Inverse folding.
């Protein structure tokens, strides 16, 4: 060995090598989740308003049970009772139920959601149902908000006359009935009350919300029942309205 020569060891060589890297890909899906609630005769605190509801109507045609506005008792949540309507031979009687239906929806769907509404069966001849949105612009569809707005129709809309009054939408029947005759309950993925299943985006669009709602958003409407003089008399006449919640 020459004097002064450096000795290179294997350990010293290892300390001077370049680092190496590898990677592992992680991948997953997040399912769309939705939580919805419905109240009839709703309040500004989004709750059922109790046994009494307010019904008003345009002057000059028929009666919704007394001088407008009429207080109609016997209300329960998810059920709307108009009381006794006396039609007029001079025109259609429109009985506008204030704060009829309020809806709350919470979802993680990044594309938002929509709510549609339609009747399970056709209304009797001479009868029509108009929905009136309770938002500042009085137009459908409603872009849901953080708080619910009560009736915006301080003057009752004119009764149906071939079409609903300005801002209103006529509700018609659609779909195939499931759980016929069963009382309504709160919405769920396995709904057990009566409903009419139909293709997505069927019926009148009630709400259109285009982004994910991490917190509950709300919207409400009045429902005007219109009875012409040609409508046959009867007691306990009824129909069911389905609300369809559609993830975008």
């Amino acid at each position: 060995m020459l004097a002064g020569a450096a000795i290179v060891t294997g350990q010293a060589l290892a300390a001077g090598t370049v680092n190496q890297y590898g990677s592992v890909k992680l991948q997953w899906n997040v399912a769309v989740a939705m939580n919805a609630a419905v109240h009839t005769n709703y309040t500004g605190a989004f709750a059922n308003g109790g046994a009494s509801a307010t019904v008003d109507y345009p002057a000059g045609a028929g009666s919704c049970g007394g001088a407008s506005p009429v207080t109609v008792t016997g209300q329960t949540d998810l059920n709307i009772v108009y009381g006794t309507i006396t039609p007029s031979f001079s025109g259609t009687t429109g009985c506008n139920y204030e704060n009829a239906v309020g809806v709350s929806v919470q979802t993680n769907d990044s594309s938002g959601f929509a709510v549609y509404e339609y009747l399970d069966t056709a209304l009797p001849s001479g009868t029509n149902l108009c929905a009136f949105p309770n938002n500042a612009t009085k137009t459908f569809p409603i872009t849901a908000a953080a708080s619910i707005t009560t009736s915006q129709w301080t003057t009752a809309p004119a009764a149906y006359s071939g079409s609903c009054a300005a801002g209103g939408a006529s509700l018609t029947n659609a779909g195939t009935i499931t759980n016929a005759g069963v009382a309504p309950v709160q919405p769920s993925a396995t709904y057990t009350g009566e409903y009419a299943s139909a293709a997505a985006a069927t019926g009148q669009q009630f709400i259109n919300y285009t982004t994910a709602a991490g917190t509950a958003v709300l919207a409400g409407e009045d429902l005007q029942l219109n009875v012409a003089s040609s409508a046959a008399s009867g007691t306990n006449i009824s129909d069911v309205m389905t609300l369809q919640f559609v993830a975008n």
